[in-house]
Amino acid sequence: MAVLVSGLVVRRGGREILHGIDCAVPEGSVTGLLGPSGCGKTTLLRSVMGLQRLTGGTVTVLGRPAGHRDLRRSIGYCPQTPSVYLDLTVLENIRYFASVIGAPPADADRVLDTLRLGAHRHQIVGSLSGGQRSRASLAVALLGEPKLLVLDEPTVGLDPVLRLELWDAFAEIAARGTALLVSSHVMDEAARCHELLLMRDGILLAQESPDSLRARTGTQDLEQAFLRVIREHEAQNPPAGHTTEQIPS
Ligand SMILES: Nc1ncnc2c1ncn2[C@@H]1O[C@H](COP(=O)(O)OP(=O)(O)OP(=O)(O)O)[C@@H](O)[C@H]1O
Ligand 1: which residue has its CA nearest to atom 30? Predict the structure, then answer.
């Protein structure tokens, strides 16, 4: 397993955000982290990256504790806010980050190609569209062919064609052996994943493949399947002192 999370509890701002998460991210596949806004996806990804103080539990990444300095060159991370220099061109950014992690110079062309950014290589990042800027950030995360790629909502703000292209690129990257952990709140992207982590309110409701989720919930529609998993969970764990929230069928 590329990532193993066990009993993860995280508090932020005096509030418990993750309530004891157990999950795993297999190598050479795309694992989708799905759940509504505010359910704790970014907090879980930050924990995998070693950027989050853990209140309890463990996070093991490529056999080492999350955040270990040996992991720096083996993991690519793309946070929600593009993390590239606005006053440099796309190529200058890529060359700079390639030198920081010791990636070979030829890697620049590979990542520009993967993200269809060749035509913009000499454009200042500050003048790119939002979607292009996200892709520039993603290109940096792909440098050095990391063993694990952690991507926080990478397709937000992208048009449907680019979204499809990006998911094709994720499949290609996984086929070369990289583990991808990709968060999204768009259920139609779930179908492109090999494995799904379904989250709600800081709890992991399920980890399984899209096919297994469809079979178990008796629906082909993954959005409906997710709603059925939520209903099932709520039926088994009614909130103390509250009536069960009505989830539309
Ligand atoms: N620094 C912080 N201090 C206190 N609470 C925080 C902090 N950062 C996030 N939170 C809270 O933690 C919860 C989970 O946030 P998180 O960003 O992990 O969710 P998310 O699922 O990634 O949401 P989104 O899809 O909107 O990005 C939210 O209720 C949020 O308000």
Answer: 38
